[in-house]
């Protein structure tokens, strides 16, 4: 990643992790109960069965909208992106639901079950003038370049 760009949080994705050389979100999979986690379980313990038998796993770039809402008012503390914004959960083919922002769409066109794909966008600029980059999802029909900008 360029020096003037930083991830919103380290360890959420890996560059060139997909078979097509694209970045992918990474998480953990319990090899005993098959539960999936995002982000990676830093504790190394499955919160469902308490197993320590976890492995890193790479998730798909496409999924479907499981739920969403449009927020019209800025939260009081942590969020520094644009307002209004759409936020919700995307269900990936692996069966995990990822919390995400939705971009490159008209909010009134979002629908539960809509196919979406992961892209990277600047969330805000930090106090040091660097672009803070994060993953987001957009409708597949939005097209365009969604490759690694991170």
Write up what this structure looks like.
The protein has 150 residues and is an all-beta fold. The protein has one domain. Helices cover 0% and strands 41% of the residues. The protein has a six-stranded mixed beta sheet, with no helix packed on it. Strands 2, 3, 4 and 5 form a four-stranded antiparallel beta sheet that branches. A hairpin with a 5-residue loop joins strand 3 and strand 4. It starts with a strand and ends in an 11-residue tail after the last strand. The C terminus is likely disordered.
Query: Which sheet architecture does the biggest sheet show?
Result: 6 strands, mixed
**Helical stretch count?**
0
Fraction in helix: under 10%
The total count of strands amounts to 10
Structural class: mainly beta
Terminal Cα span: 6 Å
The largest sheet has its strands arranged as: 1-10-9-6-7-8
In percent terms, what proportion of residues is strand? 35-45%
Q: What's the overall geometry? A: globular
Average pLDDT for all residues = 90
SSE order: EEEEEEEEEE
| Low-pLDDT stretches | 145-150
Radius of gyration: 16 Å
Number of domains: 1
Give the structure's gist in a few sentences.
This protein is mainly β and 150 residues long. The protein has strands at 5-7, 13-14, 24-30, 36-37, 54-58, 62-71, 85-91, 97-102, 115-125, 131-139.
Primary descriptors:
mainly beta; four-stranded antiparallel sheet; 10 strands; globular
Please specify the SSE layout and strand pairing:
Layout: E1 5-7, E2 13-14, E3 24-30, E4 36-37, E5 54-58, E6 62-71, E7 85-91, E8 97-102, E9 115-125, E10 131-139
Parallel strand pairs: 1-10
Antiparallel strand pairs: 2-3, 3-4, 3-5, 6-7, 6-9, 7-8, 9-10
């Amino acid at each position: 990643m360029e020096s003037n760009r930083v991830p919103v949080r380290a360890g959420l994705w890996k560059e060139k992790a997909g078979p097509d050389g694209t970045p992918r979100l990474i998480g953990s999979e319990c090899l005993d109960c098959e539960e999936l986690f995002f982000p990676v379980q830093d504790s190394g313990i499955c919160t469902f069965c308490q197993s320590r038998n976890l492995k890193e796993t790479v998730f798909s770039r496409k999924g479907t909208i499981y739920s969403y809402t449009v927020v019209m008012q800025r939260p009081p503390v942590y969020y520094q992106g644009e307002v209004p914004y759409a936020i919700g959960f995307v269900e990936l083919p692996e069966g995990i639901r990822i919390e995400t922002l939705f971009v490159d769409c008209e909010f009134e066109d979002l629908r539960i079950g809509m196919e979406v794909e992961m892209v990277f966008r600047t969330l805000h600029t930090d106090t040091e003038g660097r672009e803070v980059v994060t993953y987001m999802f957009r409708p597949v029909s939005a097209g365009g370049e969604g490759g690694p900008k991170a």
